[in-house]
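Researcher: Quick test of sequence recovery. Tokens follow.
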């Protein structure tokens, strides 16, 4: 992993202190020459050191690498406390950071098929299964 030792520079811009949501929010420019990209986990660690915060209260997302490489831009949120993060952060991002478990549900196609099967039974007496054949005229 010689990639990890390569220097990475973080620059923040459009910094806003959002008191209502208890966080600091900013656009992050990551300069990473001679390196494909930087992991979000590593970025969270570096931002936590930079802003003297806990790594668990930092959220990074939406990173895109510029054409030609060497620079990525994304968004970061640094919450004042873990309670604020748990209250305002979307569930899917909490799942990414290991703070919540993913809700297991059937696939979208299975849910649609079940809905359509239920439509055929609607209005008939509840039996083991609905009969498919109808009276022919």
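Model:
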């Amino acid at each position: 992993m010689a990639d990890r030792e390569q220097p990475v520079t973080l620059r923040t811009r459009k910094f806003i202190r959002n008191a209502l949501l208890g966080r600091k929010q900013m656009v992050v420019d990551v300069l990473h020459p001679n390196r494909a990209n930087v992991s979000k986990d590593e970025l969270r660690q570096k931002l936590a050191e930079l802003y003297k915060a806990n790594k668990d209260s930092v959220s990074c997302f939406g990173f895109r690498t510029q054409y030609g490489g060497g620079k990525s831009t994304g968004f970061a949120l640094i919450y004042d406390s873990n309670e604020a993060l748990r209250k305002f952060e979307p569930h899917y991002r909490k799942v990414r950071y290991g703070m919540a478990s993913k809700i297991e549900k059937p696939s979208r196609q299975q849910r649609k098929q079940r809905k359509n099967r239920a439509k055929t039974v609607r209005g008939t007496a509840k039996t083991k299964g609905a009969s498919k054949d109808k009276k022919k005229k």
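The helical segments are 40-50, 82-88, 91-96, 108-121.
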